Amino acid sequence: MSAFAFPPPPVVSVPVEGRAEAFPVRRILCVGRNYWAHRKEMGAADDDRDPPFFFAKPADALVPPGAPVPYPSATGALHHEIELVVALSSGGADVSPDRALELVFGYAVGVDLTRRDLQNAAKAKGQPWESSKAFDASAPISAVRPWRGDPPRGRIALSVDGIVRQDAVVADMIWNVAEVISQASTLWTLAPGDLIFTGTPEGVGAVERGATVEGEVEGVGALRFQIA
Ligand code: MN
User: How far is the CA of 61 from the centre of ligand 1 (A)?
Assistant: First the structure.
């Protein structure tokens, strides 16, 4: 085996609650428009019935629990999106919804940070979303809570400087967790270490430098970070 031309990047990982071993991350898939009320606030028509869809972030966009998030370059509209995150410890292709939960290692709480101004410009021009979604430090995340059985369905909420901005329930997702995993597996062969951000409910909005962001998903955990 040959040596590398330069030191390879480290494996990205997320702490696992109550365990010494971390969850090694392979990649991050994200679901767009998975809550009706959020679709409406983003300007979708009343008769919009298009299915949710996927985009992606690189694994090294993750920000470990508690670490500050630097305000990103090239935006004046950094938006928060609180999301339930699914962590997979096994994979596969064309996984049926009734088998999809067998792939789950656990759940975490994540924030899909978005350069909303760049996203709106990209939408208007029909351009891709990478610069608005897949930027450095765009995915703060909590520890992963190991989990078996029925997925979380309870409250999902986010506050900025103590003011509640997003307050909904996971049960309102258009695609539920099993359907999200199944749909993703029709497009990619899923593998251990994949994370899936499952979409955000209504109430997204801007965060400024110095703000403290707190998010939670009932039964899963919480995260807190400052915009530096
Ligand atoms: Mn999102």
Answer: 14
